[in-house]
UniProtKB/TrEMBL annotation, chain B:
One of its GO terms (cellular component) is plasma membrane. Residues 126-409 form the NADH:quinone oxidoreductase/Mrp antiporter transmembrane domain. The chain crosses the membrane at residues 75-97, 109-126, 132-149, 161-181, 201-219, 240-258, 264-286, 298-316, 322-343, 364-385, 405-428, 449-468, 503-521, 569-590, 602-618, 625-643, 655-677, 689-708, 745-763, 784-804, 810-831, 843-862, 882-907. It is found in: Cell membrane; Membrane. It is a multi-pass membrane protein. GO terms for biological process: monoatomic ion transport. Residues 787-902 form the Na+/H+ antiporter MnhB subunit-related protein domain. Pfam families: MbhD, MbhE, MnhB, Proton_antipo_M, Proton_antipo_N. One of its GO terms (molecular function) is antiporter activity. PANTHER family: NA(+)/H(+) ANTIPORTER SUBUNIT (PTHR43373), NA(+)_H(+) ANTIPORTER SUBUNIT A (PTHR43373:SF1). Residues 612-669 form the MrpA C-terminal/MbhD domain. It comes from Croceibacterium mercuriale. Its main location: membrane. This is NADH dehydrogenase.
UniProtKB/TrEMBL annotation, chain C:
PANTHER family: ANTIPORTER SUBUNIT MNHC2-RELATED. Coiled coil: none annotated. One of its GO terms (cellular component) is plasma membrane. It is a multi-pass membrane protein. This is Monovalent cation/H+ antiporter subunit C. Pfam families: Oxidored_q2 (PF00420).
Amino acid sequence: MSDALLVLTPVAVPFVGAVLALLLRERVAAARGVGMIALVTLAVLSLALFRRTAGGARLVGSVFGGWPQPFGIGFSASLPGAALVLVTALVALACAIYALSDIGPRRRRAGYDALMLAMIGAVNGAFLTDDLFNLYVWFELALISALGLLTLDRRRTQIDGAIRYAAFGMLAATFILLGIGMIYGITGTLDITRAAAALAAGSPSVGSAVAAALLLGGFALKAGLFPFHLWLPASYHTAPVTVAALFAGLLTKMGFYALLLVFAGLFGVGSGGVAAAQLVPALGLIAGATMVVCAAGALAQTDMRRLLAYHVIAQVGYMMAALALSTREGLAAAIFYMVHSIIVQANLFLGAGLIRRASGSWDLTRTGGMVRQEPLFAVLFAVPVLSLAGIPPLSGFFAKLIVIRESFDAGMAWLGAVGLLAGLMTIVSMALFWSDACWKDPRSGRTQRRLPGSALLAMAMLSAATVAIGLAPGWLWTVAQLSAKALGDLG
Amino acid sequence: MFMILLVSLVGALLMPLFARMIGRGAGLVIALLPLGLLVAFIELAELVERGWVLGQGRRWAPSLGLDLTLRLDGFSFLFCLLITGIGALVIIYAGAYLTDKSRVERSRFFLLILLFMTAMLGTVLAENLLVLLIFWEATSIISFLLIGFDSRSARSRRAALMALQVTAFGGLMLLAGVLMIGHVLGTYSMAVAIDRADALAASPFGGPIVACILIAAFTKSAQFPFHFWLPNAMQAPTPASAYLHSATMVKLGIYLLARFEPVFAATSWGRATVITIACITMLVAAAQALRAESFKSALAYSTIASLGILTLLVGLDGPAATVAMVGFLLSHALYKAALFFCAGSVLHATGMQRLRPKSGLARVLPLTAVASVGASLSMAGIPPFLGFISKEFLFEAQLESSWEIAPLAAAVIVNAVMVGVAGVVTLRPFFLGRGEGSGERPIVRHGESFSLVVPPLMLALAGLIISLEPDWITRAVLRPAVAAVYRAPVNVDIAVWHGLTPMLLLSAVVVTIGALIVRFWHPIHVRLRTMDRFDTLAVERLWEETLRGLVRGSTALTEVLQHGDLRRYLLLVAIGIAGLGAWSVGNLGLFPRLPTDDPLRIAPAMVALVGLAGALAATRAASLLGAMIATGLTGFATALTFMMNGAPDLALTQFAVEVLLVVLLTALLLAVPLATAPTRTPLMRRTDAVVACGIGALLFCGIVDMAANPQASPASDFYGRASYLAAKGHNVVNVILVDFRAFDTLGETTVIAIAAVLARSLLMTRGGDVPAGRSQPVHFSFLMSGRALSWLLFAASLVILWRGHDQPGGGFVGGLVAALAFALLALAYGVDWAQRALRVNPLTLVGTGMLLALVSGLPGVAAGRPYLSHLWWEPGGWLPKLGTTMIFDLGVYLVVLGAVLTFLFGLQREAAR
Amino acid sequence: MTALYAFVGAAIVACALFMILSRNLVRVLLGLSLLATGANLLLSLVGNVRSEQPPIIADGQQTLGTAADPLAQALVLTAIVIGFALTVVLAVLVLRAWRAEHTVDSRQVDSAEALGPPQERDPTNV
């Protein structure tokens, strides 16, 4: 397949799948089949795409309509994007397999497959686009499909959660839109590479300062960073658990990717750009506050989904800390952390879903006994739990290690110290989680249900990925370094 | 060494499978693995004896500074022998000890123990500090899992969590320390770090590095104030306690301290801190050992005391201290593991844990009693056992070191207590109370078995043999170990009799006091137990309080932030955005520039101000209807503004959107109460107004500044030039939408399509799409004009769609107008009628439209051009030009039509319910 | 003129934000719709050419003469339609919430967070 076509597939395949699933929505089996085929195809093609870009900074470009580069919308697979597309495909596939036992005919008739595929397409689009306005469009698409997924059951809690989600999401989208529009007004182009060059050539102005603040605020809302994180623990836990896993894995990371793209790529933070240099200390403060506040939030919860939702954003805090270091290595650390976090967060939600299925409750005070009842599950679940807690040799250990190390090297040891503190809180929280869910006897009187094999398979896929990263961290680090270089070279 | 580690790891994963299959005798089979490893290490003894350091390196993740480098020197060698040797005995013992557990649990235990052994070997063999850290953390986690092995018991879980919290805290400190070392030296090699200890200590990170490493070591080796986790950890099955929490894992802290002695010695406060902590630990642990009520906890406290002694010896300077440390390390591992085994046997045979009853068990468990005696004599430091020799070394080291009398006094007291504990744990259960026929006699469930007896006997015997026949062990183990720690050869002379020395005198004093403690143990014990101050002073409470405080604080913080009030959430967001903007502009220190040469035009200005007036009215409207009308006014004024500024496409779209919004929102407003009580206090409204104005001011500054310095847009110029020539369209905006930037439009169309799916899913009435038709009252004038008007609108929408490429219009506006036509029908004849008139499900329209839009990009691909490259066919003459953009625009038209109809029918039906 | 439009746009955004901060969800909804309008007005100012001529190539011409920036218009058009879709979706949500809870006061539409306050959890009692 030609490069230009291959670059398209991460968006095109889910979209075609979504349309077919939409037309076939009343035939549940067909819609399910379409979804599965689309995601398997996506996984294969993403792997091919990644293999073609993994060697380094080689871009594979496609410009829609065949217009010269800055005039059409550029779409390219360079390193961070291609790697993230691959991880997205993995998580999406695992969630689809998990969904076989979690998403029933009623939810599928409500449009699960079409919404899910549209969301995957939007996430991939954001990872691959070279155009700022196109990025905005993908965020809107992700927002609206996420709203659909969130309200699949039309339960009261879901409607209320969705209202919160929507209010924050629309606010964020407006800020992003204004920020992007102002960047266009200042640089005369929407192409990220050219806009970055124009910003680097010009001097900072009030306009660019306002645009940077708007973009930071807008994407920080999407990424769930303090103090813009409140919508996330207010809504994620209402979604069906497969959906929550997809959200936890992908959406905040999509927001953070945009922050990377804007601050590292567009404003040249980390490669000497001055266009937003005045905001860098704010990035550090946001990161530090996010890590601690959200780790504390997790400690305060006994509902598994809310607890994990807080961990989702605490982890984004680490990525933000890496970005705030504004060094090349810091960017690489952020990318490493992203890949790790996407896999682990999704896996944790899937695991929580199975605990709930086995013990009948989301509340940790009522769950229990998974070690004795489902030893295989316990082993699979231990991987993301330990990885989140930063225990070696799993991916989370190396992710934290790199962020903290780079904070020392960048002369911002305080950020690393905050990271260690939040890390300790995470360990405490996850150890309690483990003890409550896996060790103690369940308190709910309900008879225990067997876990479906497909769901365990889904977890096994993600756990295997986590272990693989832990055993070969150097490989991912190399990818992350190349990615950081590619991002830094945008400007 | 890699082979050894690999065999150990693979074996750890495979061997437990045997345990599942074999059942009872599994321990003996599985013990072959550690025994084999022991033999493999002994094979290397010759190299170690010559003082060689065996190094091996593999690349793992060089880009991270992570190389799998291992090194075996004398000190590591000593640890490896202990780990594998005691490991083998532990497994044999566990095979018999765990008979009351299920096979699954037993094999899980073996798996954990063997994994632990691997992790321990890795820790002491690691040369790269990161590799050391990885194995170090692994031991913490496995210890957690083993302490919580009996996971149904709340006490086990609590103990496991506590141990993990403390050791993981230490692990993080070690991580920080190692990373700082790497930051200062640029390498993670332990050898380099030790060689350049002075440079490390002198760097600005010197203090933090030493502090981190000390904390890490103190947590792992249960030094004050982190000692409290170890007695709790006795909840683990006894074999695990013997292995992890006395013989090996807790010594890792000592290992780390000994390795990094040059580093902390290079700071002014390092040694003093270590010695002080060690002395406090010894005294606290000694007192607690006498207070302890059960065997295991008495042993645990005496272990803490012993670890204190080891820490003290690491802290003291001089070669004698090193000799004493190595010697005591060995003798302690041997006798303490043996005592744990004996305690476990008693527990297993009788279920008895407490020390107070005198049980006289020597009759039923004679061999265990013998082992206990041997181990206790060693612990008490009675010649000719190894413990005696190590105690001699200890006193010699103290006398030779440059330190004052305080540590010596502490050591004397602690050793005396250890004599006491040794006496008590052997005499009371086994020998005392034999003659008394009291009712307290425990029920003996079974006698001794081979696997339960051999391990403690062998350990006790080893304590005797080594001291009587010390040649090989001195040559191959102790001397290289001392040399490795002291980093210079030291003469180690093990002999029971050194002549009349001050050390012997001290030993005699110690034994005498110890004997008195044994004699008066009961009163001392009871007396100490009544002193509650020990409990209140215990750091355990403090730790728990800290933890509770952490959770309470987290809960309070979360309640403050996550209060559930949407308004305050959004206010925080608005303040955050305003703050970021103020920060960004303020730190730049610039003022916005103003656009010049931009005359005011009266009519457009008036229109714009009408829009503003609408917005202001909307904020003040008491009724929701008024607010909606005012919002609509702003929308229409904006549309007019677009019209007056050369943007007819925008104007058309904005008009259509506003009309539809009014129609759609009316459905909502019909349902909810229009007049509502104010939901904000005047103060809140003022706050909100200030914040909102802040953001408005920020945006104004940014936009004005941006507009003052307009940039050429190469893209717009290109579009202006190429729109007709290359893309065959006069209306540049429409060409951008369907051709130049069609991909945006595709994404946007998908947004609408998904919105339709979502609305359908939310408004789907139970039991099918079309509910029983309910006739709506229809106004006469609608009835007469509705159908004609809607046909007119529908026709207009097709015209707008068709001419969009050249004139204002296009798929979006067309679709919106077509939807208006149906909205009119729905108003006139009711939703059901309109829906029947449509004949297809609106969502099918959406899907078809999406498909058309997606497919329209394919002909270009077939022609070998990128996706969404549009092709044109210009037949000439009276025939119009035809292009694939039209398919695209038709797709957009259908999606918009279908989506708006989905909203319309759904909302109206839902509102009418 | 640009400054006036910028002022009006920014003021509309401020009014919209004031409405969004209300606790009446319908007001929030109207505020978000107004926010989109204000933002679109501001966005239409980012074009680099100020002209009252629509960017439509006159008959017989091959290229565009002086006219308003077509790219900015295309962006605004996309944004208008997306804003419309989102507003309607939010309206659907609010209507559902009204059906379920018979209130549009956001303090009462909070069942998503009404899992009870975070439970006091004693971390030492496991």
